[in-house]
């Protein structure tokens, strides 16, 4: 990779790697893959004042978070809930007001500590406060470490549409510490798996095979006949009022509003009593943390490889006019699904919950970005076969791989319902969308068509 350099010392836990995202107009944005959060303090000595926007749950999850904050010498901290509802222009204005009230000058540094939502918000706020101050990221989720924190894209949502307001500006640096990932929930960790697999589908069959092997082993370690299947899938029906109570009750006959409902990869729904399965979830989480900690070298290698791929692509095409578009594989479908979910939430809020959310028949639904990307990649591969770009059987192979990794593979919504959202995608130009299709693992291409044409191809029309 151009501009990348790797430094290694000691065992897998103490290995430190550094790579650069090259920028013609500014100094290179540095990316470090290290073994401890506290090591970041040496990078912050040159900044007169450091402020931080952070995921309010990070302090509870990460063991050495307080030591990290102390070592970093952060002047003031701004906590945020890491939800899509937080990702608004109003939040950005509040952060800018907080920076102003706390005396942040043009030479200050703003740290974004958390997952992709936090880094998107912090980067956007820094890029517009006083016409731009320096910023850096400490990503604490797998999705952020391999994707969201790299490349300079910042932004917030507008209405139901993802990242409609934003900028492209590189952070001074990104500090990646794979060791903190063992503190995530399994579902949050799995949300990053699809983004990592996407990166390797674009770039390298060998890394793809290694990543699939890792996630398959993790999924197998968590599967046990004595443990409920609850939580395997990253598409979740949150607590809400069920409109079809006769068909949706708990095993004890309790109302559906007390149940957690999951959609499996095949689109079927199962209902789980949360109290009855709390022991299962605890055991699952313990197994997950033990697996990550016991296989940290392999995970660190995969994270570093994925980060290097994205850094290389962004160095060649920072403003997404060419090869960087390949990173959008699966995202046109993913963003449409996320829009659909969010729009149904707003409709439910406005009507007091008196609406049907398709298969789920439930007024509150959440879909993680990683789950949407997973399904989106499979849809993109099916589309690739349908238009004759990919060989027959590729979609089946990826589907089997993703399912073996515990990832969802089928869209739980009618595709025609998503066409309108796809037509409003940021990548749409002249009425057509720049779909990213797959020729083979390691080779992707751009293919322009309308949303209606894509849906028709997928439907076999």
UniProtKB/TrEMBL annotation:
Keywords attached to this entry: Amino-acid biosynthesis, Aromatic amino acid biosynthesis, Lyase, NAD
Any one GO molecular function term: 3-dehydroquinate synthase activity
Residues annotated as domain 3-dehydroquinate synthase N-terminal: 80-189
Cofactor: NAD(+)
SUPFAM superfamilies: Dehydroquinate synthase-like
InterPro entries: Dehydroquinate_synthase (IPR050071), DHQS/DOIS_N (IPR030960), DHQS_C (IPR056179)
UniProt keyword annotation of Cell membrane present: no
Domain 3-dehydroquinate synthase C-terminal as annotated: residue spans: 275-341, 366-428
One of the GO BP terms on file: aromatic amino acid family biosynthetic process
Pfam families recorded: DHQ_synthase (PF01761), DHQS_C (PF24621)
Protein name: 3-dehydroquinate synthase
Species classification: Bacteria, Pseudomonadati, Bacteroidota, Bacteroidia, Bacteroidales
């Amino acid at each position: 990779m151009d501009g990348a350099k790797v430094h290694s010392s000691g065992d897998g836990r103490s290995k430190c790697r550094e790579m650069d995202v090259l920028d013609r107009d500014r100094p290179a944005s540095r990316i470090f893959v290290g073994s401890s959060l506290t090591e970041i303090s040496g990078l912050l000595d040159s900044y007169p004042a450091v402020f931080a926007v952070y995921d309010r749950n990070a302090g509870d999850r990460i063991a050495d978070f307080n030591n990290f904050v102390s070592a970093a010498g952060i002047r003031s901290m701004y906590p945020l809930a890491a939800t899509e509802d937080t990702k608004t222009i109003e939040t950005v204005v509040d952060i800018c007001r907080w920076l102003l009230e706390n005396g942040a000058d043009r030479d200050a540094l703003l740290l974004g500590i958390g997952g992709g939502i936090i880094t998107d918000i912090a980067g956007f706020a820094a890029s517009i406060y006083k016409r731009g101050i320096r910023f850096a990221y400490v990503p604490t989720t797998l999705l952020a470490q391999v994707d969201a924190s790299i490349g300079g894209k910042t932004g917030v949502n507008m209405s139901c549409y993802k990242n409609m307001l934003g900028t492209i500006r590189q952070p001074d640096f990104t500090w990646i510490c794979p060791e903190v990932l063992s503190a995530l929930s399994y579902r949050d960790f799995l949300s990053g798996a699809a983004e990592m697999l996407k990166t390797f589908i674009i770039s390298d069959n060998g890394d793809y095979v290694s990543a699939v092997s890792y996630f398959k082993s993790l999924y197998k370690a968590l599967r046990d006949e004595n443990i409920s299947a609850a939580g395997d899938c990253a598409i979740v029906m949150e607590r809400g009022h069920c409109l079809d109570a006769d068909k949706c009750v708990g095993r004890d006959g309790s109302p559906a509003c007390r149940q957690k409902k999951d959609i499996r990869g095949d689109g079927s729904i199962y209902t789980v009593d949360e109290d009855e399965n709390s022991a299962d979830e605890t055991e699952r989480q313990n197994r997950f943390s033990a697996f990550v900690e016991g296989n940290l070298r392999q995970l660190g290698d995969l994270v570093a490889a994925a980060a290097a791929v994205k850094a290389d692509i962004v160095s060649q095409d920072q403003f997404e006019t060419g090869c960087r578009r390949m990173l959008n594989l699966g995202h046109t479908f993913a963003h449409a699904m996320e829009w659909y979910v969010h729009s149904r939430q707003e409709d439910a809020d406005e009507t007091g919950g008196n609406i049907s959310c398709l298969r789920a028949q439930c007024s509150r639904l959440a879909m993680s970005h990683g789950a949407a990307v997973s399904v989106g990649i499979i849809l993109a591969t099916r589309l690739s076969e349908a238009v004759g770009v990919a060989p027959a059987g590729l979609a089946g192979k990826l589907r089997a791989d993703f399912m073996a990794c515990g990832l969802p593979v089928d869209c739980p919504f009618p595709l025609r319902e998503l066409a309108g959202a796809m037509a409003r995608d940021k990548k749409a130009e002249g009425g057509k969308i720049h779909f990213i299709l797959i020729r083979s693992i390691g080779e992707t291409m751009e293919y322009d068509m309308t949303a209606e044409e894509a849906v028709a191809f997928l439907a076999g029309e």
